[in-house]
Design goal:
The complex is a heterodimer of chains A (620) and B (84). Chain A has 620 residues and is α+β, with helices and mostly antiparallel strands. Chain A is 43% helix and 13% strand.
Chain lengths: 620, 84
């Protein structure tokens, strides 16, 4: 390896408090890049089938890629992956953090954590020095206090990854956080870390990241940063970031409202980008190596967290604003800050609160049972319920397992309004009118998250309600670029998707960093390999597969929108089913969604065939 | 006809909506009536650089810049967003 990758993987066994540094197999690096690709390759090969995700057997992987950490745009990300306790399948998430850069500078492409520490612990990586240290004093601290404590010990430039009380208590909708408000790993990666008694990772690196052509990297970086700044929407983006999407989604009837019952919300402008920028925003924050920072730091002006600051973005605000019927931005920010401090996933927390509120409204759940006056718009009650989730108290303990579990516990048709796919709560886009986005959720390899494909813009621009094979082709292309390339390279997709930064830059970046001449066809094939291997992992862990697992929530098919310009819109099952069949066909999977043998062979995944064949029958 | 704007075009124009009295016109002619800095955000003269809807329906599917606009039509202009 000539550069990009460090060529080393750090393995830490918490049970034995031992670590070992291994070479990264060059073929794995070339064929899977890193990040998500490296994670699924590792989990497929090393994880025993059927393990409890919260047992010491699970592997928790922190993986960078060949673009991570080098001085090129938005390269400050890493992927956190494991078998998910929330879904029982493959789980991952990316996070923008100094820890990504520090890990590469310490000389590692990834850290793979196994076992379980016998007491609350943290892993401290200082270049070649690796220690598992006691963290009893940190256990129980919220993520902000833990961050402060670790920064005071290890310095402000240290890369710090930490879980909150939710992760410690094995709340399945918990995440890993960094730098007060950055979060990653929606499918319960916080709980996996908690199950290992691992409170934090602290990473400091002082080495140069190897590069094939450092001068070319510097030249490209200079040009690329300039190009990003010259984009027409640059200044607007930096001022509002993803928060403009509140207005945009409301305009297009896609703003999740009352547990995804509606796509428009009367108070949208009170919680949107304009209000945020003019009334609440006090500072800007970005990831390392980024010149288009999207972090909006806002100040809460009233309520229990008055005077506190929080980092807001669209997903969190929509899920804890319109989706709960709350139009008071101070309270929405309060819920956001609470979730960040506890290490709860703000998206799933909003979904769980909305699910419980709808259950109360439908008479399936009583307010006495939840112990809180759950009503749409009753923000203090929502905060109290969120506390119960974080503390696993009363009905909060049920919601802490995710809405799929809560629905199965409640019965009485609650599954009809539990908004999730494969157990992961739906992120913040209502799909009554967007069949392409519904398919994106249905086929996302971690459950209902928008990271892999975000299709609504295409559907608005080119026409809604189109269920064509061409649209499915576009969707797969989008998944392969967003969820395949960017999650494996590992770099942030936002320069491309938000400002129109040309994708052709990235093959040049890879060439300069690694010396390898990837074409987009090569990268597309890597993405296909990653998606198909993730699918194989799901099949292995579920013991089979059914098309129903690739379906979006029933509500979007059965209960149309009643408000806004698209009132009456709902998804069509036959049309969705046709698109799903095309999706399988284009991915080289059979009618049940199981990869074909010929596909596995063409992607260099021959070794997967016998393992899968022992579980399901494979078609040629 | 009515124009509704979101995001940066709205900021540049300084208002959410605009009523235009152009009788029947093509979409190209309607956009010509906008200030240059707004128009150039929306189109390069050949294709759209933003999402343009006519009565909530994609302008691309109605003939693009050559789409016919009547006095009662509503045109919505919004930036593309990437969905984070």
């Amino acid at each position: 390896m000539r550069g990009g990758w460090t060529g080393k993987v750090l393995r830490v066994d918490l049970s034995r408090k031992k670590f070992v540094v291994q070479d990264l197999d060059p073929k794995v690096a070339v064929d899977f890049l890193g990040g998500r690709g490296l994670a699924i390759k590792t989990l497929w090969e090393e994880l025993p089938r059927g393990i409890d995700p919260l047992s010491p057997n699970n592997l928790l992987i922190f993986a960078t890629g060949p673009l991570t950490g080098i001085p090129l745009p938005s390269s400050g990300k890493m992927v956190i992956a494991a078998k998910s306790p929330l879904t029982g399948g493959y789980g991952d998430g990316n996070i923008g953090t100094k820890a990504s850069v520090q890990l590469k500078k310490a000389g590692y492409d990834a850290v793979i954590v196994s076992g379980r520490a016998d007491e609350p612990s943290m892993i401290v990586i200082d270049d070649d020095m690796v220690e598992v240290k006691p963290a009893k004093d940190l256990w129980g601290l919220d993520t902000y206090k833990a961050q402060d404590e670790l920064e005071s010990q290890y310095g402000k430039n240290a890369g710090i990854l930490v879980i909150g009380p939710a992760g410690e208590r094995l709340v399945k909708i918990s995440v890993v956080t960094s730098e007060k408000g950055r979060a990653g790993g929606r499918p319960g990666m916080g709980a996996v870390m908690g199950s290992k008694n691992l409170k934090a990772l602290v990473i400091r690196g002082s080495k140069d990241i190897p590069l094939d052509n450092p001068k070319e990297v510097a030249r490209l970086g200079g040009e690329a940063y300039k190009d990003i700044k010259s984009k027409e929407n640059y200044d607007f983006w930096v001022r509002q970031g993803t928060m403009f999407t509140v207005e945009w989604a409301n305009e297009n009837s896609a703003l999740p409202t009352y547990n995804f019952s509606e796509g428009v919300f009367d108070g949208f402008d009170k919680i949107g980008g304009n209000a945020m920028e003019k009334i609440y925003k006090v500072a800007q924050k970005g990831c390392p190596n980024c010149n288009m920072p999207c972090g909006n730091i806002t100040e809460i002006k009233e309520g229990p967290y008055q005077g506190r600051r929080t980092e807001v973005d669209y997903e969190n605000i929509a899920m804890n604003g319109s989706n709960l019927g709350i139009d008071n931005m101070n309270w929405v920010m309060t819920l956001n800050l609470f979730s960040d401090e506890m290490g709860l996933d703000a998206i799933s927390m909003g979904s769980a609160l909305a699910f419980a509120t709808e259950a109360v409204h439908r008479g399936i759940l009583s307010k006495d049972e939840v112990g809180v006056d759950l009503e749409w718009g009753n923000a203090p009650a929502m905060l109290e319920m969120a506390r119960k989730i974080a503390n696993k108290e009363g009905f909060g303990a049920v919601l802490a397992e995710g809405v799929a579990y809560a629905a199965s516990k409640l019965g009485n048709g609650a599954d009809k309004f539990a908004m999730h796919v494969k157990g992961l709560e739906t992120s913040a886009y209502d799909c009554h009118a967007y069949i392409g986005m519904a398919l994106a959720y249905g086929t996302s390899p971690i459950g209902a998250h928008h990271k892999d494909a975000w299709f609504i813009s295409i559907e608005v621009r080119e026409g809604r309600g189109v269920a064509s094979k061409e649209r499915v082709e576009k969707l797969i292309w989008m998944q392969n670029v967003r969820g395949g390339f960017f999650e494996s390279a590992v770099a942030c997709r936002l320069p491309w998707i938000e400002l129109g930064f040309d994708l052709e830059w990235y093959t040049k970046f890879l060439k300069a960093a690694t010396g390898l001449e990837y074409t987009w066809d090569d990268l597309y094939k890597i993405s296909n390999r990653v998606y198909t291997l993730i699918r194989a992992f799901w099949i292995r862990e579920k013991g089979g597969w059914s098309r129903s697992l690739d379906y979006p929530p029933a509500k979007w098919f059965e209960e149309p929108l009643t408000k806004g310009p698209l009132a009456g819109a709902k998804l069509d099952r036959d049309a969705y089913d046709r698109m799903l069949s095309w999706y399988y066909e284009l991915r080289g999977w059979d009618e049940k969604g199981i990869p074909r043998k010929s596909t596995l062979r063409s992607l260099g995944l021959e070794e997967v065939i016998p393992k899968l064949e022992s579980i399901v029958s494979l078609t040629e | 006809m009515k124009l509704r704007l979101l995001g940066k075009p709205r900021e540049l124009l300084g208002k959410k909506e605009l009523d235009l009295d152009l009788g029947r016109a093509t979409l190209r002619e309607v956009l010509e009536a906008l200030p240059k800095e707004v128009r150039e955000l929306v189109t390069d003269g050949r294709r759209f650089k933003m999402i343009v809807l006519i009565n909530g329906v994609s302008a691309e599917s109605r003939g693009g810049l050559d789409a016919e606009i009547g006095p009662d039509d509503e045109i919505t202009i919004m930036p593309e967003v990437g969905g984070g």
